[in-house]
Write a structure and sequence with these properties.
single chain, alpha/beta, 2 domains, two-stranded antiparallel sheet, 20 helices
Length: 506
């Protein structure tokens, strides 16, 4: 009877968890037009991979991609959903959203089995999906690397933790091997990024005095071989067919980003602390020190070891990225599952205390419901804040003008507008990498829907062409040197002009 009741309680919490995760992760996922830089570039990479069928080397603009040098696992995922659903904002972003859902389900199920109580894992997930630094653009809400990276790296780390907890060799071997497999998948997602967790994981293994035990395990060497063969092995294989790739990796990912400031993305050593406090973890940062102290010093069970693991792993990761020359606000996103594990321990302790107190006066089942309701009420405001952000999502401030114009192509693809011209003119001198990726993504989507759109520079425009033109004084000035511009229609809401050009008499 007790076992049946526990299963029923776990099932109810699981259904509630999927419901609660759905809205922050999936709601209005395709509302924003395709974002400039990483999202649009990955989309362009997937489009070219679908055309040239080269699944080993990623391409951009018809040439091997030597600026974005990450392995292609995320691009394979985007390509899969593109072939399943057609190219769109949704097919670009579904891999990120599904990775977040899978991670949440994993955390709930594994922590339920580990602690023997489903409510702690439930609280970890609720805290995670109410972190503004996790539910955001560049992570779970756009088609970029980080959500898939977080899923693989977190699950890998949890398996290593479970290997330190295992009491039998078969169980330990299983978790060790899975650790290496998932770490390999993380590397194939975003290169060296998941290896920044390695120092913290190593320190925790040494702290638990499990290093020698692991080194005596055959699974350790089998897993290590798997990692080397498929992880670094990909890099060397690609170098054989794409010479210069390893040098590009060094310039872009190692020396170019860690050793020095890349593309002007700099900040002080406390950059990530400031981001976490000011907005990424704003709902909980004042509670975090209390959660950490109570989790380490006032807890004497499995959750204590889990909190220590999360603190050591997260602290070393935060230190590592803080030492990096290049700093971007989403680089700390892999930290949030560990922060959530620590913070949820405080809510779980409060839940246990309230349930014990209420249980003195009511039966245990009623006490648990009352305690859970009180804790969930405390989490309602952070959850509402995240929902408000994703209900009408916005991009980064610096691209909103460009994004507003791109909404036109999104609306055309969705049948809300008519494509008024088959040519778009853009400024090739302003940016050779960001906007062209967005344009090519929409060109592919419109082509799939039977519409023709060419993306042209000023030099490719001919007499009597009808054009769509962004608000760009430089483009208009260059056109006016050769043509007389006749304004046909002003698309005010998109900041676009429909014009016809007439060649000037020489």
């Amino acid at each position: 009877m007790v076992d049946l009741l526990n299963r029923y309680r776990a099932a109810v919490l699981f259904i509630a968890l999927v419901f609660l995760v759905y809205f922050p992760v999936f709601l209005h996922l395709d509302y924003m037009p395709i974002r400039m830089w990483d999202e649009s570039i990955l989309g362009a990479n997937a489009i070219e991979m679908g055309h040239n069928h080269n699944y080993l080397v990623t391409y951009f603009g018809g040439s091997p991609e030597m600026s974005n040098t990450k392995p292609p696992l995320m691009i394979w995922c985007i390509l899969f959903f593109t072939r399943l659903l057609g190219f769109s904002e949704l097919s670009l972003r579904l891999p990120s959203a599904l990775a977040a859902l899978i991670l949440c389900i994993f955390l709930f199920q594994v922590l339920r089995r580990y602690t023997g109580n489903p409510f702690y894992g439930f609280l970890v997930v609720v805290v995670l999906v109410t972190c503004q630094g996790y539910i955001r653009n560049h992570v779970t809400r756009t088609g970029e690397y980080d959500s898939l990276l977080i899923m693989f790296s977190t699950i890998a780390a949890i398996h290593l933790f479970l290997a330190t907890e295992a009491e039998t060799n078969p169980e330990r071997s299983k978790h060790l091997f899975l650790f290496f497999v998932l770490l390999t998948l993380a590397v194939l997602t975003k290169g060296v990024a998941p290896l920044m967790l390695a120092p913290g994981l190593l320190v925790y293994v040494l702290f638990r005095r499990k290093a020698m035990l692991f080194l005596k395990s055959k699974a350790f060497y089998t897993g290590l071989f798997f990692f080397i063969f498929f992880g670094p092995g990909y890099y060397f294989l690609r170098e054989t067919v794409n010479p210069g790739y390893l040098q590009a990796v060094w310039s872009n990912e190692l020396g170019g980003r860690f050793m020095a400031v890349n593309e002007g993305h700099e900040g002080p050593w406390y950059f990530y602390f400031s981001e976490i406090i000011s907005w990424q973890f704003v709902s909980y940062y004042l509670l975090f020190p209390v959660a950490l102290l109570t989790g380490i010093f006032l807890t004497r069970d499995k959750i204590q070891r889990l909190v220590v693991f999360a603190f050591i792993t997260g602290s070393f990761f935060l230190l590592f990225i803080s030492l990096s020359g290049t700093k971007l606000s989403h680089y700390d996103a892999p930290l949030f599952p560990y922060i959530a594990i620590i913070t949820a321990s405080l809510f779980y302790r409060l839940f246990s205390g309230i349930r014990s107190w209420v249980g003195r006066y009511y039966k245990i089942l009623s006490a648990g419901i009352v305690a859970a309701a009180i804790i969930l009420a405390m989490l309602a405001k952070p959850y509402a804040d995240v929902l408000a952000k994703v209900y009408f999502p916005k991009g980064d401030w610096w691209e909103e003008g460009f994004s507003t114009s791109c909404t036109f192509f999104q609306d055309v693809a969705k049948g809300r507008e008519r494509l008024l011209a088959s040519k778009l003119v853009y400024n090739t001198t302003a940016n050779l990498y960001g906007p062209p990726a967005v344009f090519n993504d929409y060109k592919e989507e419109l082509t799939e829907k039977g519409m023709t759109l060419s993306i042209d520079s000023v030099g490719q425009i001919n007499d009597n062409d009808t054009l769509l033109m962004f608000e760009d004084a430089d483009v208009r000035r260059k056109l006016e040197r050769r043509f007389t511009i006749q304004n046909i229609q002003r698309l005010e809401q998109y900041h676009l002009d429909l014009v016809r050009v007439k060649l000037k008499n020489e």
